Amino acid sequence: MVDDDKIRLQTSHSSFYLSDVTSFTYGPFVSRFWMLRKHMILLGKHELERDAPFFAWNCITISFADKNDVYLIIKNEKVLADFIKLLISKTDTINGRRGTAIKLRKMQVESMRKRNHKKLDTLQEALVSEQIETRIFRQVYQKYNLMKIR
């Protein structure tokens, strides 16, 4: 039995809002994961084959403007895929840095307007813009998904 007086809720120091994320790095490309690599090199072959601590594609680093980075190792493939999709969507990115998809999306919408010589009404333009956004999102996610294979 747990005594309610002894339980207290506390926010983690690694808690963050997605709106505060400035960029993210997928894979073991930051120094924190390279340090863990040294530990893994010292593990025996049988230990690694039985239960590797993590794979390169399990690593993700989340960066913020005004606080320390958060380093995550997510072994569950589905959870990791969903988290990457969330980060891509909420940071509006094509390369891991916040806002980099905005200019591309605007350029593609403008290009569509020029090709489509007639003026689109607001609803049609919103629909086309959403289709472009979805296409960019899928291409970016596919790029991150392919990084697992390399």
The domain count comes to: 1
Mean pLDDT: 82
The CATH topology is given as PH-domain like
Cα shape: extended
- Biggest β-sheet description: 3 strands, antiparallel
Stretches where pLDDT is under 50 for at least 5 consecutive residues are none
CATH top-level class: Mainly Beta
Q: Please list the strands of the largest sheet in the order they lie side by side.
A: 1-2-3
CATH architecture call:
Roll
Measured on Cα atoms, how large is the radius of gyration?
21 Å
Oligomeric grouping of the chains: single chain
- What amount of the residues lies in strands? 5-15%
Name the structural class. Answer: mainly alpha
Total E-strand runs = 3
Describe the structure.
The protein is mostly helical. The protein contains five helices and three strands; from the N terminus they run E-H-H-E-E-H-H-H. It has helices at residues 31-41, 45-51, 77-91, 100-115, 122-146, and strands at 21-26, 59-64, 70-73. It has a three-stranded antiparallel beta sheet, covered by helices on one side. It is extended. The mean pLDDT is 82.
Short description:
The protein is mainly α. The protein has five helices and three strands. It has helices spanning 31-41, 45-51, 77-91, 100-115, 122-146, and strands at residues 21-26, 59-64, 70-73.
Task: Walk me through the topology.
Blueprint: E1 21-26, H1 31-41, H2 45-51, E2 59-64, E3 70-73, H3 77-91, H4 100-115, H5 122-146
Antiparallel strand pairs: 1-2, 2-3
